[in-house]
TrEMBL record:
Pfam family membership, one: ABC_tran
Family named by the database record: Belongs to the ABC transporter superfamily.
Origin superkingdom: Bacteria
Entry GO MF terms: ATP binding; hydrolase activity
Lineage: Bacteria, Bacillati, Bacillota, Bacilli, Lactobacillales
Entry-linked Gene3D superfamilies: P-loop containing nucleotide triphosphate hydrolases
UniProt protein name: Glutamine transport system ATP-binding protein
Domain ABC transporter as annotated: residue spans: 5-239
EC nos: 3.6.3.-
Length: 243
């Protein structure tokens, strides 16, 4: 299997705080990786380094063939390949749902208008929001906004999508709709890295669990192995609180 994201001895500091401690991690094409761990452990920092939203201080991080730390690397090339879905959706509030999805393919990929529209409408169907194409984000629920954000990411035909707590800001009844869409995407074989507190997703949809604590990878296992038999005391304690 080919690595699509590869960390080699990566360190990251915020001032004196050592947020990522000598990370060695290789994410392969098609994997659905759940990153779980306590608040403040560095999960967002880890995932945000993967498309250059946070800089690393040392080590090497190769993403879809590009060296993130190399000043000559154009981060836009990486962001074309690797999408990101945020906890708070980050939709363009002054654009319709359809425009949210067509904007980047038009500007960045110069996709033909008709094809762009068709791809966007197909994606809206897929996430169950074809009837909301002309709505503005403020007219949608949180769960609907997040499904638009996922469709927007998919429209770029990325090689991987990063999700940072995509359901944490949602009311409970909307979480499942978003998780169902994520499962659909996973089933199509897209590489996904998902910071999540949804243990059901991590266990049933993901095929790898990384337990992160104190800026370090503590466990890296297949879901069943991790959930049935966590090796570290820290993971056992964490699981006893969240399950
Ligand atoms: P998590 O996503 O697991 O909650 P974060 O990656 O957000 O953890 O944070 C890891 C640590 O880094 C925390 O101690 C947090 O306070 C700190 N941190 C995160 N972002 C910044 C920042 N921009 N400046 C300074 N410290 C930060
Ligand atoms: Mg976080």
């Amino acid at each position: 299997m080919a690595a699509i994201i590869e960390f080699k001895n990566v360190n990251k500091y915020y001032g004196k705080l050592h947020a990522l401690k000598n990370i060695n991690l290789s994410i392969e094409e098609g994997q659905v990786v759940s990153i779980i761990g306590p608040s403040g452990s560095g999960k967002s920092t880890l995932i945000r380094t993967m498309n250059g939203l946070e800089k690393i201080n040392s080590g090497q991080l190769i993403v879809t063939g590009y060296d993130i730390a190399d000043k000559k690397t154009d981060l836009n090339k990486i962001r074309k390949n690797v999408g990101m879905v945020f906890q708070h959706f980050n939709l363009y509030e002054n654009h319709t749902v359809l425009e949210n999805i067509t904007l980047a393919p038009k500007i960045v990929l110069h996709r033909d208008n008709e094809e762009n529209h068709q791809i966007a409408m197909d994606l809206l169907k897929k996430v169950g929001l074809a009837d909301k194409a002309d709505y503005y984000p403020r007219q949608l629920s949180g769960g609907q906004k997040q499904r638009v954000a996922i469709a927007r990411s998919l429209a770029m035909k990325p090689k991987a999508i990063l999700f940072d707590e995509p359901t944490s800001a949602l009311d409970p009844e909307m979480i499942q709709d978003v998780l169902n869409v994520m499962k659909l995407v996973a089933d199509e074989g897209l590489t996904m890295v998902v910071v999540t507190h949804e243990m059901g997703f991590a266990r049933e949809v993901g095929n790898r669990v990384i337990f992160f604590d104190g800026g370090e990878v503590i466990e890296d296992e297949k879901p069943d192995v991790f959930f049935d038999n966590p090796k570290s005391e820290r993971a056992r304690q964490f699981l006893s609180k969240v399950i």
